[in-house]
Each structure stands twice: as structure tokens, then as C-alpha cells.
Amino acid sequence: MNRKAFGILIVVLIGAIALLRYTGGNTDAATVAPTPTSAAAISTAPALAGLHLVVAPAGNEARYRIREQLVRVDLPNDAVGKTTVITGGLGIGPDGKIIPAESKFVVDVSGLKSDRDRRDGFVRSRVLETDQYPSVEFVPTGFIGLPRTLPTSGSHTFDIVGNLTVRGVTKPVTWHVTAEPKNGQVVGSAATQFTFSQFNIAQPRVPIVLSVADTIKLEYDFTLVPKS
Q1: I want to staple 52 with a disulfide (CB 3.0 to 4.6 A). Which of 44, 57, 119, 227 is the partner?
Q2: Residue 101 in contact with residue 84, Cβ under 8 Å?
């Protein structure tokens, strides 16, 4: 892939749902929507001749992370559920902006797997109700924080705003993204967080769990490739 193509890929590094470790800052990311200044930042992306990135066959994993305190366990720990069943991609228009109608990431949550089968069954049946809502979807709508001069190498951070749908409820969220071009691909991670109530999800109450934090963190390690 030539240098110019690498520059184009970086602009859409968005691969988004991406998830590296959430670094703090805004603790209510699900309520963040683009502001007038955000729109100005988004508009700085240079014009692109139409580009479409898609989820690669390998190198993608989505996770939820929730702090919990179990009975007969001295310290709190993170409950982490994972899946690699992810599809979708990102469309960029000639003006360098995301095309929402051509951009969507879909995560199949019906097979989320943690280190406890009982937890997995509870998450599927009671928390996410995967028989009725088997997937979580994110539709990106804009970039925040992309540089005016597009880098062609190295790791870079920025935000992606869009609409996240969980269990039939759609809310605006902001993903914090770290990405870089590598071997003709865009690789990286992204993270966001929200509370149970923001998506009308009942906070778990089961005898084996003493407490569950009210914050759900989503993480996405991604590998994106140009659509054939």
C-alpha cells in the first residue's frame, strides 16, 4: 500500500468499536453528543475519494467489562465477557465525513463468553435478553480530534461519535480510539462506557454476587481492511 493510501486509512482509523483500556475523563460517555466545536473538528478531515473499510476476517474482539464483588472472594474483580463475531464497516464520503447509511458495526452478543458459565447464562437471558436482541450495533456519525495533516505511520488517538443500540435502546456515545496503519490494514482499539439505567438494563442482583458496579465498559480491538 502506498504512502497516500496509508494517509487515507489513518483518516478513517475509526475502526472504532474498538477498545483499549478506558483512560478516564468523561465518566458518562453515553450522554456525549457532538457539539458545535466538535462539528468543526470533524470538518477538518480532508476530502476523500470515497473509501470503505470493513472488519477483517481475523483480529477483532469485543468485550464488556463490569466491576463485581463475589461472595467468598476477598477483593472486587472485573467480569469480562468476550466475542469475536463482529461484522460491518465504515463508509467515508468525498467530503471526508462518515456516511452513516454505509457505516455500522454489529457485534453478536449471543455467544459472549466469560470465565463463568453461570454468569454467561445470566447475561444472555436476563441482562441482554439475547433471544430477542442477539446483537449490539454501533453506527458512527463523526470524528473528533483528527489532525489537519494526516500522519502515515505511528499510533494516534481521536474520538468517534455515533449511536449505540443495546437491547433495542439507542443512545449517542463517544468512543475513545487508538489506531495505526499496519501492513495495509488499520489496527487498534476503542472504548466507551455507560450505566445500566442509560440503556434501561436492570442492574444484576443475584445471591452469589455481593455488588455490581453501575458502569458497563465496552472495549473493541479491531482490524479493518479496505473493501474489495
Answers
A1: 227
A2: no
Reported as type and span, the H/E element at residue 39 is helix 36-42
The conformation of residue 204, written as its DSSP 8-state character, comes to P
d(CA 155, CA 43) in angstroms, rounded, equals: 22
Residues 22-29 have a mean pLDDT of 36
The 10s digit of each residue's pLDDT in 139-173 is 999 989 865 555 567 788 999 999 999 999 999 99
Tell me the C-alpha distance between 226 and 106, whole Å: 18
- Residue type for 113, please? K
The Cα–Cα gap between 45 and 36 comes to 16
Give 66's strand partners.
79
| Model pTM score | 0.74
- CA–CA dist 59, 92 (Å, integer): 22
Burial zone of 167 (CB within 10 Å; 0-12 exposed, 13-18 middle, 19+ buried): middle
**Residues comprising the chain, all counted:** 228
Residue-wise pLDDT for 183-218, tens only, equals 888 899 999 999 989 998 877 665 555 446 778 899
User: How many angstroms separate the CA atoms of 128 and 151, rounded?
Assistant: 39
- Indicate the pLDDT class of residue 225, thresholds 50, 70 and 90: very high
Phi, psi (5° rounding) for residue 146? -75, 140
